[in-house]
Amino acid sequence: MKKLLLTLLTLPTLWLSATAQTLPTADEVINKYIAAIGGKDALMKVKDLTSVGTMVYNNSSIQITLKRKAPAKSLTLLTGDNGQLFYKNVIDGTNVVDITQQGTTRQNEQAARLSLMYNRLFPELVFNEQGIKSTVVGKEQIDGQDAYKVTNTFADGTPLWTSYYDVITGLKVQHVIKWDQNRTATLKSSNYKEVNGVKIPHNSTYQENDGVVSMSKVNSVQINTGVSDTEFAVQ
Length: 235
Fold this sequence. Notes:
Elements: H1 2-21, H2 26-36, H3 40-44, E1 48-57, E2 60-69, E3 73-79, E4 85-91, E5 96-100, E6 103-106, H4 109-118, E7 133-142, E8 145-153, E9 159-166, E10 172-180, E11 183-195, E12 198-208, E13 214-223
Antiparallel strand pairs: 1-2, 1-13, 2-3, 3-4, 4-5, 5-6, 7-8, 8-9, 9-10, 10-11, 11-12, 12-13
Organism: Fibrisoma limi BUZ 3
Keywords: Signal
Signal peptide: 1-20
């Protein structure tokens, strides 16, 4: 009887230990993702990337142009069929501005820090360099598939975003980012296609809070075309 009681008492501990051992480390998850999209060597060769696609929002079609240049420059442009500007975001590597029909707004230090990481070519490549701390907190199902949930914070503990990586493929399928106190966005990525040895997601959905879900499709991707620094000039 005594042996039976001891066995029963140790079962919860053994179960918890076994459960914990089934989860990989954050480094293992992130390294698998980097390998899945082409590997570190291939990603490091990407100096700039330009993609053009369309987004459907509230039954309206919007053209999206994204330009990224290492190490931390970016341009995001949303325009209508007639070239009408809806939104423009420019990052010169240090400063971040948002441009709409209402005018130009320079992001504050906290918002800019988040934007600078979010709009890099491959943020996970510089997590260690930037002091980002990542933790695997469990598994969740994303669109019916198991994914590792990884929380990421800046070195000072400020939240960066939460990423979800497919357990089987290693690909990043979702991340959730809190832009500010009132805006939390969920971005889902799918349909990865290889371009110059690097896998780029060609379909995505974006939703802020419980608002309208926008669906985007990439029509073309160009890598290392020599994008000029003038594209990222912040006025």
